[in-house]
Write a structure and sequence with these properties.
594 residues, six-stranded mixed sheet, five-stranded mixed sheet
Length: 594
């Protein structure tokens, strides 16, 4: 071989090696590509299967939850069998290796992962919570013959706790799924399912807490006495209404009976005033410690209950173990479970009319001294029916859950260990010093000295603003009050003191509470800056404006509120429960780290 031939042959061998490497690379790419296409096709096929099973399972879970809450056991059992089949298939379709590979794929991975989370959550619910709920006899949570069987109730307590933990876990799992990335039908199924599971979670929470707390509260370890207080929503206070009438409840071994009754007016006033927390006193002076009707100017129910209990003790000599407050709307919910009842004197109370009867008709038809007696007798009659009539336990639990969710049932125990057990629940009425989600409070106190709260209609809109450089967020609040009061024809009992000038004008003191660690920056009434009183309560800045609304008119109060440092894009409202429900809307925003 000549010297001139060697480079040519070396170049030839080099070209052959490069071609061989290229063929191997192409072959490898072809194999990998084929595998990816096959996997993608398999994921697509399994995705089609999973989507069908998931939509079916979500619809069945939503339906089954409604049946459980409504107490339709026969239909619920049939629905459970279908749900378990669909949820098992959906979970299987989203758990194989190809699906796990697809979850790592850009663009579609988040969607596949979200679908897997939904499928797993529904399947857990179908296998763990629903079968136990349908198997359990919830009549143990309901009194029969005037007595609650405390031993039977204690027997189901542990099982109820496990069910509630399962439902709450599913609720948290569904809440954590990023809905924005889902295809439309799956996203809507998730939203609908979340709403129904929220209702179910309310029922299981009420049942769990009831099974754990009711035995000691109803005298399992010795007699108990409580004050049952009627909040009069016609004369608004921050927790719902003025404490108008009360009755002493006596409990022993699960049996409950009504004791003596009285009214706030019969307690007179207190001079020197009872001791009021310093922050509350700075906002409302000594009024909560002087007048029983003003103990709940603050929304923090433990303060109101503590003051009222002590007032009753000083005036009557009766010491109670706790305070239970309800309003006429609670009675309307309970009457759906018990059916109509008769108040002594032959006045019928029915679910559809009880609010109007107590907050409007009674002022037109009864003398002043008869009104408080009628309110106390009405509350006593409904609770007496609750203990003595045979009622559907699920309907009753749903009624209690709704009332507690709306903060219409409030309870405070004078025993610290019991108060700590449910101190964080809505029923405790505790104004928290920390927020999980920034919460703005809007609390109403009557400033007319009248009973015109029945005629108020309220709306509240809260919008989450932009993220600030200091880590806080601005929230924009808009509250509208409208009066449906007539311009004439109301009795002196309704018009009261007429402190707004025109006796038919509703004067309301609107207190805006910032989120914990936040602030209220400014307030405007119908677009113009307005004077506000200010203070602080439990790490929340408070701004209070006086709003006068004439018959047929409306006023709008707007405020800019600042959160503490937070990255979340959600916010919540805490509102005074009123005779007519609020119309509310909360506009969330993306979190600050998105």
């Amino acid at each position: 071989m000549t010297e001139s031939e060697r480079p040519t042959r070396r170049r030839s061998r080099s070209r052959r090696r490069r071609r061989a490497r290229l063929r191997r690379a192409l072959l490898s790419a072809l194999v990998v590509g084929s595998l990816l296409l096959a996997a993608g096709g398999w994921v697509g096929f399994r995705g089609w299967q999973a989507r069908a099973h998931l939509l079916n399972a979500a619809g069945l879970a939503r339906e089954l939850s409604a049946l459980v809450v409504g107490g339709d056991t026969d239909r619920a059992l049939r629905t459970l069998a279908a749900l378990q089949e669909q949820s098992r298939a959906a979970r299987a379709a989203t758990s194989d290796p190809s699906w796990r590979l697809g979850r790592r794929t850009p663009m579609v991975g988040d969607n596949l992962d979200a679908i897997r989370q939904i499928a797993a959550a529904i399947d857990d619910l179908a296998r763990q919570a629903f079968p136990t709920l349908l198997r359990m006899d919830l009549t143990s949570l309901v009194p029969t013959g005037g007595r609650l069987d405390l031993a039977r109730l204690s027997g189901v307590s542990a099982e109820l706790t496990r069910v509630n933990e399962s439902v709450q876990g599913t609720r948290r799992d569904l809440a954590a799924v990023p809905a924005d990335s889902l295809v439309d039908k799956v996203r809507q199924a998730l939203v609908d399912l979340r709403g129904e599971i929220d209702r179910l979670a309310g029922l299981t929470t009420a049942a769990d807490q009831g099974a754990r707390l009711l035995p000691p509260l109803l005298g399992a370890n010795g007699p108990r006495r409580y004050l049952l207080v009627s909040q009069n929503s016609a004369e608004l206070r921050a927790t719902g209404g003025m404490f108008g009438a009360y009755a002493v409840i006596e409990a022993k071994n699960g049996a409950v009976k009504m004791g003596k009754q009285g009214s706030s007016s019969s307690l007179g006033f207190f001079n020197p005033p009872l001791k009021v927390p310093a922050e509350t006193r700075a906002i409302w002076t000594d009024l909560p410690g002087i007048y029983p009707a003003d103990v709940n100017l603050s929304p923090h129910f433990p303060t109101a209950a503590t003051l009222y209990r002590e007032m009753v003790r000083r005036k009557t000599g009766t010491t109670v173990d706790g305070v239970l407050a309800v309003d006429p709307v609670v009675l309307s919910y309970l009457l759906k479970a018990t059916g109509p009842v008769l108040v002594p004197g032959g006045v019928p109370l029915a679910s559809e009319k009880v609010v109007q009867t107590l907050l409007n008709d009674s002022y037109r038809q009864l003398e002043v001294e008869q009104q408080d007696e009628f309110f106390a007798a009405s509350a006593a009659a409904v609770f007496d029916a609750f203990f003595k009539k045979n009622v559907n336990p699920r309907v009753l639990l749903s009624a209690f859950d709704r009332a507690i969710t709306e903060r219409r049932i409030l309870f405070w125990s004078a025993r610290p260990e019991e108060q700590r057990t449910f101190g964080g629940s809505r029923m405790a009425g505790t104004l928290p010093e920390q927020d999980t989600v920034p919460t703005v409070g809007v609390f109403l106190n009557d400033g007319s000295g009248a009973k015109l709260g029945y005629y108020l209609r309220q709306t509240a809109n809260l919008t989450v603003g932009e993220c600030r450089s200091d880590g806080r967020r601005e929230l924009r609040l808009r509250v509208t009050l409208r009066s449906t009061a007539p311009k004439s024809g109301l009795t002196k009992s309704v018009l009261g003191l007429g402190m707004a000038g025109d006796p038919y004008t509703v004067r309301t003191l609107v207190s805006i509470f910032s989120p914990a660690g936040g602030a209220v920056l400014e307030a405007r009434l119908d677009g113009a800056e307005t004077a506000v009183g200010s203070g602080t309560e439990r790490r929340r800045q408070v701004a209070t404006a006086s709003v006068d609304v004439a018959p047929g008119a409306e006023k709008t109060l707007e405020a800019t509120v600042l959160t503490a440092k937070t990255g979340v894009g959600q916010a919540e409202l805490w509102l005074t429960p009123t005779a007519s429900p609020w119309t509310t809307q909360v506009h969330s925003a993306p979190s600050c780290d998105q």
